[in-house]
Amino acid sequence: SMRTRESFVYKQSNPVGNLLAVQSYAELLDTTPTRTDDDWLKAKSYSELPGPNTWRLLSYFLPGGELHNMNLIQMNRRMREMYGDIYRFPGLMGKKDVIFTYNPPDFEMTYRNEGVWPIRIGLESFTYYRKVHRPDVFGGIGGLVSEQGKLWADIRNKVNPVLMKVHNVRQNLPQIDRIAKEFVDKLETLRDPQTNTLSADFHDQLKMWAFESISFVALNTRMGLLTDQPDPNAALLAQHMTDFFNHSFKYDVQPSIWPYYKTPGFKKFLQTYDDITEITTNYIEAAMKRFKLEENRENKCVLEQLLTLNKQVAVVMAMDMLMAGIDTTSSAFVTILYHLARNPAKQAKLQKELKGILSDPSEPLTAENTKNMPYLRACIKEGLRITSITPGNFRITTKDLVLSGYRVPRGTGVLMGVLALSNSEEYFPQSEQFMPERWLKQDTASESQACPEARSRNPFVYLPFGFGPRTCIGKRIAELEMETLLARLLRRYRVSWLVEQPLQYESTIILSPHGDIRFKFEPI
């Protein structure tokens, strides 16, 4: 429409319009007067928070600077060394300040005061793309990552019964299990029987498994990525997703002038978004046509269930699942498998549990036989403790808070550094050890000795999927996929790590394994 085009032109030419579109959460903040209670008055002022000023921070990113060419993890670690367990990271290029904290009481204070509509600013480029650059496609709906307040709650309330109910998600187990079996069968064709090594890149193969799994859950569509005739667009989309994570770190995490000036690099990023949108839209439209021809099926996929509620929300959610469900799940799985490969005694314990569930490796996994897999689930938890998908959880404070003895006014960003604490002796004794036993309950530990004293008593230190109303919406799906593939893979092979060095990671907006990733798969 003319109005949409006018809005589009205005926001393209007006950086203030861009920033308002991206950061429209001020109306969600608490409107009561500034606090005057004793805790607030006794606290140190906001200006006393440690941290660099804007110009010093900018100098850190220049060649020779403290943070030059560092990834997110390195950057966080260096800043903490310089400024301590709480510091202020000044807002750059129109962004708000962010307080980095490594004190768990601050985590609890932040979460306990976030209210029913927590504010978590996602990727600003993502919000800009959907709400400003392409309103023709998204109709003003940014999705769960971008929306705030009532708009966010309306979507989340529609989606929660579909994606957060265990029973609803686990109805996908038979097909997810079939996909896991196909993946293991494909690995067998790639395995050299003499050396037990693979002739293809394991991580790339794993991304195809993750994509095949999430496309079934979201669209009830099989891409054929584990066959000899994969859908060519799926491989393209996987590459676009890798580009998306790299671009997003550059334009959403590092300082950037894109809200004021669209650089050639940022325009290339928008093209990546366009490519992702085009491919996912085509998949969604094809799935919707197929649904009309298969109306009487019992089990309906996520897209079908959401279409009965709201078409636009359904399309955006299906797209988000395809975007978010490839690199995240595959990266987490590599981490978990790596730790099991490096710890053969723990792997043997898991295989003993799996043999009790699947006496014959070809038996199907069912709702019944997957109920009792405490050691497998503990292995997943322990892998995610050592390396979570993101280094921290983020919120915008809706109220004035006192964090680590400093006044933090409403509307300030807070990043809670859970990854560093999950690898700290203070919260997890023998934190460098892969010890699934720390997650076992006494009553479920048969031969495996439960060791709950080896995990933190503070529930806010370990939160791989976040906390509260904005808990990761894909949590149940990711757990189902990882549990199923881990059971299938470890029931069939003894796995060992072939590289001399530990597993390496690159940190964009997620932590992703990279470099030399080689396993040996010895048939059981």
TrEMBL record:
Binding, heme = 472
Please verify whether the record's keywords include Metal-binding: yes
**Could you tell me the keywords of this UniProt record?**
Heme, Iron, Metal-binding, Monooxygenase, Oxidoreductase
Family annotation (PROSITE patterns): CYTOCHROME_P450
Q: Name one Pfam family in it.
A: p450
What cofactors does this protein use?
A: heme
Please give the superkingdom of this protein's source: Eukaryota
Q: Which InterPro entries match?
A: CYP11_CYP27_families (IPR050479), Cyt_P450 (IPR001128), Cyt_P450_CS (IPR017972), Cyt_P450_E_grp-I (IPR002401), Cyt_P450_sf (IPR036396)
Entry's Gene Ontology molecular function annotations: heme binding; iron ion binding; monooxygenase activity; oxidoreductase activity, acting on paired donors, with incorporation or reduction of molecular oxygen
Q: Which PANTHER family match?
A: CYTOCHROME P450
The similarity comment for this entry is: Belongs to the cytochrome P450 family.
Q: What is this protein called?
A: Cytochrome P450 12b2, mitochondrial
Q: Which organism is it from?
A: Drosophila rubida
